[in-house]
Amino acid sequence: MQDLANADCIIIQGSNMAECHPVGYQWVTEARLKGAKVIHIDPRFTRTSATADKHVPIRAGSDVVFLGALINHILANDLYFKEYVVAYTNAATIVGNEFKDTEDLDGLFSGYDEELGNYDPSSWAYATEGEGPDASPGTIGGPAAGHEHGHSKSERSAGDEHGSGGPALEHARVKRDETLQDPHTVFQILKRHYARYTPEMVADVCGVSVDDFHYVARALTENSGRDRTSAFCYAVGWTQHTLGAQFIRTAAIIQLLLGNMGRPGGGIMALRGHASIQGSTDIPTLYNILPGYLAMPMVGNHDTWDDYVAAIANKAQKGFWANADAYAVSLLKAWWGDAATKENNWAYDYLPRLSGAHGTYQTTMAMKDGEVEGYFLLGQNPAVGSAHGRMQRLALAELKWLVVRDLNMIESATFWKDAPEIATGELETEKIGTEVFFLPPASHVEKAGSFTQTQRLLQWRHKAVNPPGDCQSELGFFFELGKRIRERLADSDDPRDRPLLDLTWDYPLNEDGEISGEAVLQEINGRHLSGERAGELADMYTDLKADGSTSSGCWIYSGVYAKGVNRAANRKPGREQSPVAQEWGWAWPDNRRILYNRASADPEGKPWSERKKYVWWDEENQTWTGLDTPDFVKTTAPSYRPEPGTGGPAGLAGDDPFVMMADGKGWLFAPKGMLDGPLPTHYEPQESPVQNPLYRQQSNPARRVFPRKDNLWSPSGTAPGSEVYPFVFTTYRLTEHHTAGGMSRWLPYLAELQPEFFCEVSPELAEERGLVNGGWATIVSARSAIEARVLVTERMTPLVISGRTLHQVGLPYHWGVGKEALVSGDSANDLLGVALDPNVQIQESKAGSCDIQPGRRPEGEALLRLVHEYQSRAGVTVETSNQLKTTEDGT
Amino acid sequence: MDPKRTFLSWPVVRQVRAGDLLARGPAVTSEKTRSLQPRTATADRVVQSVCPYCAVGCGQRVFVKDERVVQIEGDPDSPVSRGRLCPKGSASEQLVNSPGRQTKVLYRRPHGTSWEPLDRETAIDMIVDRFIESRRNGWQDTDEHGRPLRRTMGIASLGGATLDNEENYLIKKLFTAAGAIQIENQARI
Ligand code: SF4
């Protein structure tokens, strides 16, 4: 974050950083004071726009067209950073000739499986050198590297595994043409793919003028190269789409082409929204991954330990992921200790198996269908904060039991008495059988522990006071729950209870009689279990072994407790150290602050320029050195070339800076790993009043849809009925509130600062619909209708899309209907349906279709009638907008 | 005439003398205000912490007096935040001390119309009972092809992203060992 101050140009897109990450924004301000250009690309004019050099209004969900046009502009005008692109990316790599682009197939890539609605990615694979014993398959990244269909990958949300490295490849003997002229090089494929993404197309699809486009293109390219670097910042404005992962990929392609990755003032800053949301993916409470981005085993793919190890990484691939077996064994040793032996494959069979997608939305639907009995809500308020609030609340009412742990009496705990569905008659308190336990937790100052913030920085919080009353930390609660479950099952001889009984669960207590968080962090860090260093804490993940002699609860965090020192608690004041500030907290991996920083030096190991020097090769001492921990094998000289076929870290050539990628290169084209295509392609959102002008394929053909009566969509594009919901709505956050309001709507200061739900509309839309500033409006989607106060403001710009004016409505989503909060109101998330990105199963909540009318919404049953009346006028059925492939009929 | 109310105590004169031309500073401070000390000055101890809201991770200083949090301020030592906090971080003292905060365990029985008190130990025991039973009810040993699943679909969880790393670790570890796979987090959302 501080490194943003080193940027010469910052593009903020999919984020309102000044309001949502206010204190982080000081580094953007600092860069601007030093002369950097700051550009904000967003549907709304916000405080970020007000403090930027330029605001570019854009239609929500059209970002790939804008960014794709930047790629086209860079390639067509030879503005890319040649030495960087040739040496450090896969631009020169040759792709197998079975590959067909969306330009050839009207919006589909080769390998689309209509039946499953996913891709078989084998035709996207690299071509290989025709030599060597195992080159027979002809491609890598193809079948020989573990043949897994996109469907099963999507089911297990495999995209999340790339939180710390790229997908496995069989080996790294690829064919390259460093002149970039071969038509099958990634470079040439890229050129063809984006050729139709022109400034005129941007004007037509995004509503951005050709002049504005050129302004951004100039600012970005003039501020990239040897001497200058540019950064991108994004937040959930990019992730919460059915094409979300590809939005970010498009930015990654730009940053690689311009040579902005791994360099100071460069990169792509993911602005995550919650104190430890990064930590919650690193040490995931997510269905599909294990700590450190190791896959949860999937039935059929990972039935045996050998299958699993072969699938997570290949010894013949380059880089540090080749050692994933050591990370997996160390995790199993941390969890099952002596019960994890070589003979039982480190207790691999103690791990439950996935058989499909079990994300929070699939679980909600299963709950609503009566398939889930018990549910824990740990500081989360899905009745307000998750997409499709109505479905969430109706699902809670089907549970047998619910445990809510929250500081305040949130709507998800009180749905049985004050959910909006009680007013509509859909629910009745006495008929709801859900048993609810409300348990208050400790606040952040009443327990010690670590958060991982948005820069992968772990920061330890010391405990200030004891929690009041019955309040207890999650650490304490789960330790206790586990202890009692184990006691209860102690005499069981049922094999299914073995994993619980063999679990390592003896944590020491601290002076307050609570489980010691430090002891847990030490377990996460890992230990040497045998050998000379037995009992010592691991120094780093390179200490970890696949032979059972080490343990580590999360390999990427290995080193946070090296030498017995809690480095997350390092607190050398910022003013007493360099701007990189390595002695404040601890960043994974290896306390490194900029990833892939080998790329900050040229292929010979010298800084690209004095101005942007960061990490370099010290010829005299034959080592990498610099301002940060070098992200490279410390003693691998720039000139080093491994024997062909060498795997692991030793397989990295001296100029392979992307040490977690299987070929050591930055991927412009992803031969594997992305489930909806090797290159980002524009598709319209699941629900959009606009027809995709680029292809007949309207929306992402691999997105996850759920055709159900309780999850209807408006017709899209030119389909009849789309005019019934003619406007685009987008949801967002305010500075003064936090997500579903559980930590803000109960606080007098914050509630007073933002007391009421409102919608932002342009003066033109207000005029068209008769909306009055300060009055009420009713907003209707195919799922629900809500009411909000009207804010008529020029911050909303009507856009001209394909020759017609399109209005967007902005909706902050912090309020909920209930009686306990200081402020309440309708919830914007009630308007949303459930359609997901295939890579990571995240919902589309940043673009939907709606109507808006003046006045308050009807109450009681009349509300349902209004929603139904709209649905029938638009001719909505369960199939509407849920067809995955539309290349034939163009609907 | 009150001897203290001399010409020199006339408001305008006070303003000029104190250099407080806008009359917002010492010229208008009351006796009461002058005798006040900031809570930060009288605290018994100061503890370093981190803001629990967004992922910027601003450093906080927590001021404690008589075993109560009396104020939370930005930590100037933090190289990330340099002492600053936004409205949310600045309000976090109320997150700890707000009168609306729940500090007691509550229970709503099936079909019940109101909360009932429950002591924490009993509540945890009841949750253990339900956990074990639902785990068993939703248990799946194998799939339709006889391949091992070894899991339960009876229990699910959704966590916020203000959980500590150590907490997430124990949650994932316990649930996975129990065979519960539907464990999710705000990070998906
Ligand atoms: S003070 Fe504001 S900007 Fe800083 S971490 Fe807290 S919420 Fe984020």
Question: Overview of this structure, please?
Answer:
- The complex is a heterodimer of chains A (891) and B (189).
- With 891 residues, chain A is an alpha/beta fold.
- Among the domains of chain A are: 2-85 and 193-270, Dimethylsulfoxide Reductase, domain 2; 722-874, Barwin-like endoglucanases (Beta Barrel).
- In chain A, a hairpin with a 4-residue loop joins strand 4 (112-113) and strand 5.
- In chain A, helix 4 (63-76) runs antiparallel to helix 8 (199-206), helix 4 packs parallel to helix 11 and helix 15 crosses helix 17.
- Chain A is globular and about 75 Å long.
- Chain B is of the alpha+beta class and 189 residues long.
- Chain B has 3 domains: 1-36, no CATH class; 39-97, N-terminal domain of TfIIb (Single Sheet); 138-188, no CATH class.
- Chain B is built from 7 helices and 8 strands; from the N terminus they run αααβββααββαββαβ.
- Chain B has helices at 11-18, 31-35, 39-42, 87-90, 92-97, 120-137, 165-178; strands spanning 45-50, 59-65, 68-74, 106-108, 116-117, 139-142, 148-159, 180-185.
- In chain B, strand 2 (59-65) and strand 3 form a beta hairpin.
- The chains are: A alpha/beta (891), B alpha+beta (189).
- At the A-B interface, helix 12, helix 15, strand 12, strand 14 and strand 15 of A face strand 1, strand 2, strand 3, helix 4 and helix 5 of B.
- Strand 14 of chain A pairs antiparallel with strand 4 (106-108) of chain B.
- The complex binds iron/sulfur cluster (SF4).
- Iron/sulfur cluster sits between chains B (51, 53-54, 56-58, 81, 85-86, 88-89) and A (21-23).
- Iron/sulfur cluster (SF4) sits between chains B (51, 53-54, 56-58, 81, 85-86, 88-89) and A (21-23).
